Structure formats: C-alpha cells, structure tokens
Amino acid sequence: MRNSFNLMLIALVCMDSTYLLSSIIESFRISFHMATELHIHLFPYFLYPVLSIAMTASVFMTVGIALERYIAVHYPIDYSQAINSPEACKRRLLKYVIPVTLLSIVFNIPKIFEAEVYDEVDRTRYNATYDEVKTFKAIRTTELRKNPDYVIYYNNWIRLMVVGIIPFSLLIYFNYKVGISFIPQLPGKIKM
Fold first, then answer.
1. CB atoms near residue 187 (< 10 Å)
2. Is 185 helix (H, G, I), strand (E, B) or coil?
3. CA 157 to chain CA centroid, nearest Å
4. How far apart are CA 140 and CA 115, in angstroms?
5. In sequence order, what are the residues at sequence separation of 6 or more whose Cβ sits closer than 8 angstroms to the Cβ of residue 140?
6. In contact, 114 and 144? CB cutoff 8 Å
7. Is 182 helix (H, G, I), strand (E, B) or coil?
8. Which residues of the chain fall below pLDDT 70?
9. Gene3D superfamilies in the record, alphabetically (predicted)?
10. Looking at residue 46, what is its pLDDT?
C-alpha cells in the first residue's frame, strides 16, 4: 500500500534514524573517547549540525504527518482526488519533505558556527635539554556559542518555541480535530 501517508512515515523513519545514528556516534565519542582525527574534523561542521537538523526535521515531519491525516479526514474527497496516481503520491510527499528539510537546515545554520577545530599543543619537559612537543586536533566552542544572548535567545527561547511549543500545539490541534471527527454525532448536537 503505497500512499502518501506511508511514504511520509518512511521519510520520518529516515529522519529519526539519522538522528539516532548521529547520537550514537556522539555518545561513543564522549563515553569511550573514541574520537578519530576524521571525527574531530567532521564534528563541528557536519556531525553536530546534522544531529540538530535531524531532530528538527523529525519534529517538523511529525507535524506534517498530523497535518496530512487532518486533511485526509476533513477533506476526504479532495484528498482522494489528490492521490490518484503514484506520481501524485510522490509529489505530495515532496510537498512535505522539501520544506521540512529546508526549514530544518536554515533553522540550524548557526549550529555550524558553534564549534571549531584547533591545534592543541602538549609540551612535556623531561630535563633541561629535552622537550617533547606534540600537537593534536581538538574541538572547542566558539565565541558565538559562549555569547549569552545567543544562548538565551536562540538556544533556549527560539528553539523551545520552534521545536517544542509550536509543534506540540499543532499536534494537539490536528489530533483533536481528527479525533473529534470520529465521535458519533448525536441528534441535535452541533458538529465542531
């Protein structure tokens, strides 16, 4: 059964799997000190932003699926006409996946600038004539990430609103409207 709802669920699974894989990689780096030089180079500019992008996309896609169900229940004729062919299902899927992906990327662009790779110098002095100097790559936070305004407004308030409160409110609304549609209407009762 290949309809747009099932395809959207597959897209959600891909987004969730990306988030889980990114989280597992990060937890291995932190818990087991398994950071390779490649991981250190990829972390600030790819792995860390992908983690945030995947989480945001997962939340947005969940809201998109709730919207799709709302449309299917409240406008069944329009919905069934819009998904007559497999191409129409794919187009409908892309109408959700492309905006979700683009909005998630744009919303998380600042994450790319929160950390950076630098050369850490480890100098060991064995005696007056022999010093050993080792350099290795390490990750540190940038000034942007340390900025109190950035932390308070973007990392706390804006993320709370965009990834938390607004999607949660939309999920409550869409699911309430879908659920209320299945309650049998009593004679004389006004339909909501």
1. 4
2. coil
3. 17
4. 6
5. 115, 116, 118
6. yes
7. coil
8. 1, 126, 128, 184-192
9. Rhodopsin 7-helix transmembrane proteins
10. 93
Give the pLDDT of residue 132: 80
Tokens of 76: 């069944």
Rounded CA gap, 33 and 46, in Å?
19
DSSP calls for 26-92: HHHHHHH----HHHHHHIIIIIHHHHHHHHHHHHHHHHHHHHHHHHHHHSHHHHHHHTSSHHHHHHH
* Cα distance between the two ends of the chain: 32
Cα 86–chain centre separation:
27
Task: Give the pair of three-digit tokens for residue 96.
Answer: 């959700």
Give the residue carrying structure tokens 């390779």. 36
The residue assigned the tokens 């804006």 is 158
Task: State the DSSP H helix or E strand holding residue 184, giving kind and residue range, or none if neither.
Answer: none
Which stretch of DSSP H or E encloses residue 180? helix 166-181
DSSP element (H, E) containing 5: helix 4-32
